[in-house]
Amino acid sequence: MDTLEDLNRKLDGAKDIKSVVKAMKAMAAANITQYEAAVASLGDYYYTVTLGIKAYLTAEKIQTVIEKPGHGKDKDQTVCVIVFGSDLGLVGQFNDLLSAFVQHSLNFIPGKKEVWVIGERIQALLADAGLNIMRSYPVPVSIDAVTPLIQGLLIEIEEIRESRHVKQFYVFHNQPKTGAGYEPFMQRLLPLDEKWMHNLITIQWPTKIIPEVIGNAVTTLRALIDSYLFVSVFRASAESLAAENASRLEAMQRAEKSISEMLESLGKKFQSLRQSMIDEELFDVVSGFEALKKEHH
Fold first, then answer.
1. Strand, helix or coil at 186?
2. Could you read off the pLDDT of 49-79 as tens digits, one per residue?
3. What are the distances in angstroms from CA 90 to CA 128, 140, 245, 250?
4. CATH 3.40.50.1100 fits 28-248, yes or no
5. CATH architecture group of domain 4-19+251-289
């Protein structure tokens, strides 16, 4: 049975943990704000870049895909899979759900899978699942650290496209849902195929003025495609970070509730035991007093 000292020690420990949870909850809430703001601004940038590509295609009268995936030898081709997870724990099912989604989705993509991971936690899960982890990177600790990561990824993508002729690239990450929560998401980054072209053609040009390209058309297209790839991967990273912090905030809220309930329970036990000890002491005092009265009589 717990003593008053034991209960007091447990109460102090629970209070300390609750303070840490509150700090982590506040940090997660602050991080969500900056990452959600980045995602919102990226939406406008992504739309602008997409309009730029559409302007080029319209001006050049291009109605076919820029690059078609190979057929017939898909099983022999290498597919590069980039997965954004987390380095830290206390994020609920954030990594587990994404890992299951990646494994399920890859069953429908032919070819030899080469996995690049951002985050130690997701790396461990995917490695345990038997996937071929070729490269790993730490998760950016702030929005300012995202740009160097994405720039490095795009350089490495270009290198293996040229040296090993890898054409297919997919990006997996968790993205925030409207309202609350998050869900796993997959995007085919490269090649720019028929589906990509169809989605681009369906976008309505915002004015009645026919767009035209100023300067070298090839250079312009390359710059637009580079921007498209950059914003696509950057948005995946920013959405993953926003979803991670949302998951951590939710986990911290549950933890705070559990700790509050435990503190209440321990407090009641402490007060009950203390009252019992006081009652026993009073009973001993009364018993002693009654015994002294009998001796004097």
1. strand
2. 988 888 888 777 776 655 554 544 567 799 9
3. 20, 17, 10, 10
4. no
5. Orthogonal Bundle (1.10)
